[in-house]
Amino acid sequence: MLGFIIAAVAGFLTPHIEGPVAEPIVKALQGRIPVEASEKRLIAFMVAMLGAGVAAALLDSGTPFWMIVGGVLGYFATRIMAAGQKLIDARNSKR
């Protein structure tokens, strides 16, 4: 369960680490491997999941399946919450 939570937090923090973490990696790779601008967020997600995996391994918590589910849910958390809020607002407006 702790691994799931760690991965969810890492997925949620992906947009925030895109600049300070992924940008230097993209600059280091630029001469050797072509990296498109749209792939910068993916690199940040990979770094975040790598960190979550290391933390989960050190804490001996979490299976790969739940780490993936947590990372994906964390990554899309703001969109999921907005969709849920939209459903709640629509349901309340019908009353």
Describe the structure.
With 95 residues, the protein is an all-alpha fold. The chain is 80% helix and 0% strand. The chain is built from 4 helices and no strands. The mean pLDDT is 92.
Question: Quick summary of this structure?
Answer:
The protein is an all-alpha fold. The chain has helices spanning 2-29, 40-58, 64-75, 77-93.
How would you describe this structure in keywords?
95 residues; mainly alpha; flat
Distance between the termini: 38 Å
**Poorly predicted ranges:** none
Specify the helix fraction band: over 70%
Structural class: mainly alpha
Major sheet attributes: none
How many β strands by DSSP? 0
- The number of helical elements comes to 4
Q: From the alpha-carbon coordinates, what is the Rg to the nearest angstrom?
A: 17 Å
Topology as a string of helices (H) and strands (E): HHHH
Beta-strand content bin: under 5%
C-alpha geometry = flat
**Overall pLDDT:** 92
Outline the secondary-structure elements.
Elements lengths: L1 H28 L10 H19 L5 H12 L1 H17 L2
